[in-house]
Design a protein that fits this description.
Oligomer: single chain
Order of helices and strands: HEHHEEEHE
Shape: elongated
Helix content: 10-25%
Structural class: alpha/beta
Strand order of the largest sheet: 1-2-4
């Protein structure tokens, strides 16, 4: 078999129906569009959401809520996670823990708008943390074991 001899099976391909090419073609005059109406015209189509002239469902339901375009999204990390990563050796407890050091240790993927420390879990190691936000309980837990937390 040669590449120039390859062919489709008989009937696998058919020519497109040429509409509007005279009465003898069987698809002349209205070209299969029927008589009059919006669908018979060129260029004009109903929208996919058109519901027969009644008020569309998207306009009937009330709109509510608000998305603040200026809202900041923080990366959160719990004290229990910090303790776990110190124990596994991913974080050095003697060096300050910053958002950049967490990215370098592959604990978080991206920095977003800053770092927030939360108090879930227990911390036993004295650490120095540089963060954008933290909970009061997290600050109390860090200072209880002799660590510090400050704003960057």
């Amino acid at each position: 078999m040669k590449l120039n001899a390859l062919m489709d099976n008989y009937g696998a391909r058919s020519n497109a129906k040429r509409v509007g090419r005279g009465m003898g073609s069987g698809m002349g005059k209205t070209a299969g569009r029927g008589n009059k109406g919006q669908k018979a015209r060129s260029g004009s189509r109903k929208q996919a959401t058109f519901q027969g002239g009644q008020m569309p469902i998207l306009r009937r339901f009330p709109k509510f809520g608000f998305n603040n375009p200026f809202a900041k999204e923080y990366v959160t990390i719990n004290l229990g996670d910090i303790e776990k990563f110190i124990a596994s050796g991913k974080i050095d407890a003697k060096a300050p823990i910053t958002i950049d050091s967490l990215v370098a240790a592959k604990i978080i993927n991206r920095t977003k708008d800053g770092l927030k420390i939360l108090a879930k879990g227990e911390i036993k190691t004295s650490v120095n943390i540089v963060a954008d936000k933290w909970s009061k309980a997290a600050q109390a837990a860090i200072e209880k074991v002799g660590g510090t937390i400050k704003n960057k």
